[in-house]
């Protein structure tokens, strides 16, 4: 049995939060005890885990769950208050934008200084400098002081410096989100290389699709404690389910961000997502499965031929599906005051992996006067077996054949493949 690359046992990290900090000598004299009033924030609570050599491990959780604090403890930036940390081999951290860089120095000088902090000699750093600058695409800005760099340029330089250290353990925080799409793809190519070389990587990010693409294992942190540790798919499902429960609680107490308007002629009293099995509000729906959206509408006034509709939006707010009864030219009937109706829409959830929101509405017959519009009334998380990059992942066929030959290779992407 080889020793693990990272071993944490009973790790605690607590920060002292002063209630009232005096800033002047007068305040200190008049209020000598005010600086002693403070509360404690337990950023990490009894965290224990081992990372075998060559494992690509992800750490996920909401803001304030302790992810970055854990990474800084692993990097030696924060000493633990209790517990032990053992990291084997050379560590290369990419934790926070600007850490280890001097804004008054040029890119070349910063690379040399940063390399020294990581245990790399000056001659070795200078030998690797051309590759670092080429990867960061900063050839034109080599002699420019770092204070004149944009945040994206600093990210590129920092990441390029980190991967050139030939380390045993890489610590990567979510600052990669600052880079543009092209640079992120270069970083992902680097992740693939590190996986092939069996390097140990600890990856903190909010990008759950990237976690599933690269990580062999995932830790889920909540309020400084590990609440899930294992398969990335299962840990992410747990994370999303917990997020969904918190969102429902926020909506119940009135603090959730919801938009609602209309003349009140009809009101959408309740709505829910239903799986084919009959499970109501499952939270997570497998991609491609048949689902039904149902909404119960109460009519406050008499209405003839009301129009019912819904919009499904992706994580970025894009409309990935929209429909209403006017599009089908369906006559929905007449309803008197006090009567109710149930609006149903069924479809196969071929949406991309992620969290989707559902807006529901009912309007008058002209489809212009809104009776009740409930923005993002429902949340539906779709889980997919792979990352596709699109808003939807429709069943489709791919046909490839060699020119001049009758034989062909036919590949099918269908719901049965899930």
Outline the structure in words.
With 418 residues, the chain is α+β, with helices and mostly antiparallel strands. The protein has 2 domains: 239 residues, 3-Layer(aba) Sandwich (Rossmann fold), CATH 3.40.50.300; 123 residues, abc- transporter (atp binding component) like domain (Coagulation Factor XIII, Chain A, domain 1, Distorted Sandwich). Helices cover 23% and strands 35% of the residues. It contains 8 helices and 22 strands. The chain has a 6-stranded mixed sheet with strand order 5-6-7-3-8-9, with helices on both faces. Strands 10, 12, 15, 16, 19 and 20 form a 6-stranded mixed sheet that branches. Strands 2-1-4 form a 3-stranded antiparallel sheet, covered by helices on one side. Strand 21 and strand 22 form a beta hairpin. The mean pLDDT is 84.
List the SSEs and their pairings:
Layout: E1 6-18, H1 25-30, E2 38-51, E3 56-60, H2 67-75, E4 82-87, E5 91-94, H3 107-117, H4 122-136, H5 151-163, E6 169-172, H6 181-196, E7 200-204, H7 208-214, E8 217-222, E9 225-230, H8 232-252, E10 260-261, E11 266-275, E12 284-286, E13 290-299, E14 303-304, E15 307-313, E16 319-324, E17 334-335, E18 340-348, E19 354-363, E20 370-383, E21 396-400, E22 409-413
Parallel strand pairs: 3-7, 3-8, 5-6, 6-7, 12-20
Antiparallel strand pairs: 1-2, 1-4, 8-9, 10-20, 11-13, 13-18, 14-17, 15-16, 15-19, 19-20, 21-22
């Amino acid at each position: 049995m080889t020793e693990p690359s990272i071993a944490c046992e009973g790790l605690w990290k607590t920060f002292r939060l002063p209630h009232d900090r005096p800033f002047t000598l007068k305040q200190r004299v008049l209020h000598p005890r005010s600086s002693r009033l403070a509360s404690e924030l337990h950023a990490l609570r009894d965290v224990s885990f081992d990372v075998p050599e060559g494992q690509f491990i992800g750490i996920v959780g909401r803001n304030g769950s302790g992810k970055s604090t854990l990474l800084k403890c692993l990097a030696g930036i924060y000493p633990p208050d209790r517990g032990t940390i053992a990291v084997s081999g050379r560590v290369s951290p990419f934790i926070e934008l600007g850490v280890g860089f001097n804004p008054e120095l040029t890119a070349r000088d910063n690379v040399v200084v940063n390399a020294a902090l990581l245990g790399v000699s000056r001659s070795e750093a200078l030998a690797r400098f051309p590759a670092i600058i080429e990867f960061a695409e900063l050839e034109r800005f080599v002699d420019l002081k770092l204070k004149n760099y944009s945040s994206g340029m600093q990210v590129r330089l920092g990441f390029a410096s980190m991967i050139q250290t030939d380390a045993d353990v890489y610590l990567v925080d979510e600052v990669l989100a600052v880079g543009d799409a092209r640079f992120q793809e270069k970083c992902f190519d680097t992740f693939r290389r590190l996986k092939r070389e069996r390097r140990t990587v600890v990856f903190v990010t909010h990008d759950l699709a990237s976690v599933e693409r690269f990580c062999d294992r995932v830790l889920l942190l909540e309020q400084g404690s590990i609440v899930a540790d294992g398969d990335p798919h299962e840990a992410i499902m747990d994370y999303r389910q917990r997020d969904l429960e918190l969102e429902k609680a926020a909506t119940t107490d009135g603090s959730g961000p919801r938009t609602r308007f209309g003349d009140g002629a009809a009101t959408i009293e309740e709505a829910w997502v239903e799986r084919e099995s009959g499970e109501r509000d499952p939270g997570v729906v497998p991609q491609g499965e048949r689902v039904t959206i149902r909404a119960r509408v109460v009519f406050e006034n008499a209405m003839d031929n009301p129009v019912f509709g819904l919009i499904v939006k992706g994580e970025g707010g894009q409309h990935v599906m929209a429909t209403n009864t006017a599009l089908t030219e369906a006559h929905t009937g007449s309803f008197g005051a006090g009567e109710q109706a149930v609006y149903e829409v069924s479809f196969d959830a071929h949406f991309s992996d992620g969290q989707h929101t559902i807006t529901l509405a009912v309007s008058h017959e002209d489809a212009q006067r809104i009776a009740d519009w409930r923005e993002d009334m429902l949340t539906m998380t779709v889980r997919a077996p792979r990352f596709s990059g699109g808003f939807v992942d429709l069943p489709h066929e791919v046909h490839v054949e060699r020119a001049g030959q009758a034989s062909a290779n036919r590949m099918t992407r269908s719901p049965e493949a899930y």
